[in-house]
Structures are given as C-alpha cells and as structure tokens.
C-alpha cells in the first residue's frame, strides 16, 4: 500500500476498510462516505440493502457496495484554533529591507582635491640651434652612413656603381625638404634654365642626374635580410633610429598624448588606410605618442593584424596593447 500510484486512484470501500484495520491512517475519521455503487441505475426489486442501517457490520455489506468508491470524512477543527491574524496577508509580516542607496562624499562650491604630486618641470638651458643643426641631431652622421651603405649595396646588386657619399646623401635629403614647401609639377623643373621654375639652391648643391641616381638606389635596409611578417621591413631600421633619437632629446613633461595619425598618400600600397570623416582620409596610419606641444616621442606604423605587439600585452587587444607599450617605453 506504500506505492504512490496506489493513492492516486480512488479507493474502494473494501480497500479503505483494509487501511483502517491496518492502522495506516493515524487520525480517526468521523465517517465514511460511500459513492453510488456500480449498478445504481439498474432496476431492482427493492431499494434497501441487506442488514440494519443503524448497526452496520462490514462483513455483511454486499459486494456492490464494497466495490464502490469511498472517501473518509475527518472532523473539522473547532473555531477555537482560529486566530484573527490568520486572515491577514503574509506581506504584513515580512520585514521590508532598506533600499541600497549610494552615498557620495563631496564638498559644495569647492574644487576636488588633487591627489597627484605637483609636477616640477626640469629647467634646462635653451639651445638656439639653427634648422640645419636641429635636423642633424636626428639625422646624424651614423644614421646617414647606414642609409648610404644600404643604398650602395643595392646599387651594386643591380650592377651599378655604388659610390654614394654622406655629403651627397645630405644634399639629397635637403632637396626633399625644400620640395615640401617649394613644390613644382615635375621634379626635373628644379634644374631647368627658367626663371619661374629653377631653384638655384638645389641646382648648385647637386646635379639632376646625381639626384636621380640616388633616388633610384635609395634603401634603408638590406633586401637579403628582410622580415616577411613586417610590411614596413624596408624602413624598420630608419624608424628604430628615429624613435631612439626622438626619445633621447624629448623634454621631460607630465602630459603625453597617444593617438593615431594619418600621413596623406594617394598611390597604391597594401598599407594604405581609409578613415571616413577624418581631415586626411587616405594615407598611412601611424600610432604616435606626442607631448602637449606636438613633439613626437614615439611612432609606429599600423599594419592591421601584422602590427608588432609585445607578447606581454597581446591578450588585451590592439588598442590597449599599443598604449601600454608606449607607457613601458617612456618609463624605461
């Protein structure tokens, strides 16, 4: 009788009497309600069952009633057990929790206290250098000699005379600087015998053919030792030398800015980027760290997924890794 499926179906009177005799029901019932028997709608000669109604003996009950479904009628508890609080909703007895409110400690009409140390800029003697002297600080003789050596090696690989000198390379770089603010439609026009196009400074410094020879053989790295994973491998030695020079001569300041910068370029190159809504939309994108007055401390070209990222910060993503990499360089 302990099977749960047994108690799901209605018990017959015989089964219910068996449970009462075996004391399976702990509470004494008030009575037993018997449902109509199976043949309740059949025509019978009499409507009386065998036996006395006032003195019921279970053994004398007919099989029709023993097979009928029955229920136990228990006595309802008295009204003395009823409490007036039993009719109240449970929400009246639940203590309301106080709402979590944020508390802010601030002072009205006063500036916030500065928790940073007061920055004292280092006072140095100002050096009034000429533009040429300032240029040679970054493009010193060692850097120019390295460019000359790579250019001569490349010209010899092409069966040409590798006899470029350091002075000629300085003249070549000077022509490039002048062409930035005194531009003409064609490069050869600087050496023409026309008053409106000839530049006497350029034509007196270097010949047209010599300038063209250096232009066609200019190299900043050895083609036999290039890194295939670096899209700027031919310029990487130049970038590394300039970054070192920029950092060595950078003034010590508190505020630094690190952001992307575009170098305009409209030719065809795999590293050319397009940024919508920018003043310079087409060109090369660089990560640049500068000071408040625009002095460049560090720069690194953007190469997409091939951008050189330190393994220490690679799991943080591209944006965070380049910023932390720049911060690591500044504290070294």
TrEMBL record:
<protein>
    <submittedName>
        <fullName>PiggyBac transposable element-derived protein 3-like</fullName>
    </submittedName>
</protein>
<dbReference type="Pfam" id="PF13843">
    <property type="entry name" value="DDE_Tnp_1_7"/>
</dbReference>
<dbReference type="InterPro" id="IPR052638">
    <property type="entry name" value="PiggyBac_TE-derived"/>
</dbReference>
<dbReference type="GO" id="GO:0043565">
    <property type="term" value="F:sequence-specific DNA binding"/>
</dbReference>
<feature type="domain" description="PiggyBac transposable element-derived protein">
    <location>
        <begin position="130"/>
        <end position="325"/>
    </location>
</feature>
<dbReference type="InterPro" id="IPR029526">
    <property type="entry name" value="PGBD"/>
</dbReference>
């Amino acid at each position: 009788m302990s099977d749960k499926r047994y108690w799901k179906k209605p018990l017959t009177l015989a089964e219910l009497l068996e449970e009462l005799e075996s004391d399976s029901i702990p509470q004494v019932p008030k009575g037993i309600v018997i449902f109509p028997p199976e043949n309740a709608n059949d025509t019978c000669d009499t409507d009386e069952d065998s036996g006395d109604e006032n003195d019921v003996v279970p053994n004398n009950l007919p099989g029709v009633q023993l097979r009928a479904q029955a229920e136990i009628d228990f006595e309802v508890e008295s009204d003395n057990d009823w409490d007036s609080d039993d009719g109240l909703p449970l929400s009246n007895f639940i203590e309301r929790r106080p709402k979590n409110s944020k508390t802010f400690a601030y002072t009205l009409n006063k500036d916030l206290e500065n928790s940073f140390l007061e920055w004292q800029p280092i006072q140095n003697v100002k050096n009034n250098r000429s533009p040429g002297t300032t240029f040679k600080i970054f493009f010193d003789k060692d850097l120019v000699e390295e460019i000359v050596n790579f250019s001569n090696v490349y010209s010899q690989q092409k069966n040409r005379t590798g006899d470029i000198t350091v002075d000629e390379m300085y003249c070549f770089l000077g022509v490039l600087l002048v062409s930035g603010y005194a531009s003409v439609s064609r490069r050869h026009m600087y050496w023409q015998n026309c008053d409106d196009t000839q530049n006497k400074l350029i034509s007196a410094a270097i010949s047209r053919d010599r300038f063209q020879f250096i232009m066609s053989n200019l190299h900043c790295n050895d083609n036999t030792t290039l890194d295939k994973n670096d899209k700027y491998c031919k310029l990487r030695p130049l970038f590394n030398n300039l970054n070192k020079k920029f950092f060595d001569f950078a003034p010590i300041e508190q505020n630094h800015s690190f952001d992307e910068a575009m170098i305009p370029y409209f030719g065809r190159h795999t590293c050319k980027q397009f940024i919508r809504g920018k003043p310079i939309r087409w060109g090369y994108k660089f990560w640049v760290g500068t000071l408040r007055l625009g002095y460049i401390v560090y720069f690194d070209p953007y190469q997409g997924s091939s951008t050189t990222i330190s393994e220490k910060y690679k799991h943080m993503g591209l944006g965070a890794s380049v910023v932390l990499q720049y911060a690591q360089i500044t504290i070294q």
